[in-house]
Amino acid sequence: MTAAACDPASDDEPAPTPDAGTQDPDPTAGDVAPADRTSCTGLTVPAGTYDWTVEHGGRTRAYRVHVPTGYDATKPTPVVFSFHGFSSNEVEQEQLSQFSTLGDTEGFIAVYPRGLNFPEVYGQGEPDSRGWNGVACCGPAQIANVDDVGFVDALLADLDTRVCTDPRRVFANGFSNGGFFSYRLACERAQRFAAIASVAGMEGMADCNPSQPIPVLHFHGTADETIFYEGGNNIIGGRPYPSAGESVRRFAEHNGCTGPEQQTFQQGNTTCFAATGCTPESATASLCAITGGKHAWPGQPGYNGGTSDLDATLQMWRFFQARPRP
Length: 326
Fold this sequence. Notes:
The protein is an alpha/beta fold. It has a single domain (48-321), classed as Rossmann fold (3-Layer(aba) Sandwich). 22% of the residues lie in helices and 21% in strands. It has helices at 90-97, 99-106, 118-122, 139-143, 148-160, 177-188, 244-254, 312-321; strands at residues 48-56, 59-67, 77-83, 109-113, 165-175, 195-199, 216-221, 262-267, 270-274, 285-290. The chain has a ten-stranded mixed beta sheet with strand order 1-2-4-3-5-6-7-10-9-8, sandwiched between helices. The longest helix is centred in the middle third of the chain and has 13 residues, at 148-160. It is globular and about 50 Å long. Residues 1-20 have low confidence and may be disordered. Keywords: Carbohydrate metabolism, Hydrolase, Polysaccharide degradation, Secreted, Signal, Xylan degradation. Residues 1-40 are annotated as: Disordered.
C-alpha cells in the first residue's frame, strides 16, 4: 500500500490566485433533505468497481465507486463516502480503508472521491498534492477556497442517476485532510449525511452550525506528529485547529448531549468514550484515542503502525448502521 495520506507541509507551491470553483457565499444552501425512496427503476449498473466523473465548478471531477456483490438495482442501498488524505488519492483511500471489501460483506456502496491538486487549481505545482477544502486544512483546495461541498452535492446527484441509493443512509468518513472535510460535511450537510467519522482529522470550521443533530465518531493517535492530538497550528497555508477532544465536544454540544461520558470500547492501547443524553439519543459524539498511536488508520498496521486493537473501518460501519437519518 502506498498511501501518502497527509503531510501538511509543502514547499515552493504557487501563490494563491482566484479560483473558478470557490465556495458559494451560502455554504448551507444545498443542505436539503432528499425525498425518501422505497424502490428504484431503470437503473442497470451491476456489482463492480467504477471510475466515474461529474462536471462541477468548470472542472471534470473524478470519483471511484464500488457497488457490492449481491447489489439489487431496485432496492435502496446504503452509501459510505471515504475521503482520502492530503497528497493521497481515491485509489489509495480504497486500499487504506478497505470499505469495498467490507461493503461486499455488509451490502453498502463505497464511494471514494478524488480531491484537486495544485496543477488543477493553479495550473502549476506539485501534482502529488490532492486534497479537500477542510477550511483549516489542507493544500490547494483549502488555500483557493475550492467549493468541494458543492462537488459532493454534484456527486450525490450524479450517483443517484447510476445506482439505487438510500437517502436516509448516506455516510461520510475520511483520513486526515479527509477527516477535516468529513467534519465540514457534518457542519454544512447534516440533512444529506446521516453520520460522519474522522480518522486523524479535526473539526476545523470557523463557524459550524449543523442544521440538525448528526452523530460523529473520531479516531486519533495521541502521538500523531502530523495532525496533533491536542491541536495545533502546523499546517502550511492552513489555520489553527482544535484538539480531538474539543472537536468531539463541539458536536456533543451541537447534539444536545447532556449526560456523562460513557466508555464504549477498551482493548490494548485503544479506548473509546461517547457523550450520552443526546437528542436524539443516537446522535452521539464519540472519541477513540489510541495511546501512542501515530498518523494512521486503526486496523491497518502496515501503514504508519496503525493499531491492531481496533478496526476503524468495521467500527465506523457499525456506528453508521445503527444511525440512519431520522
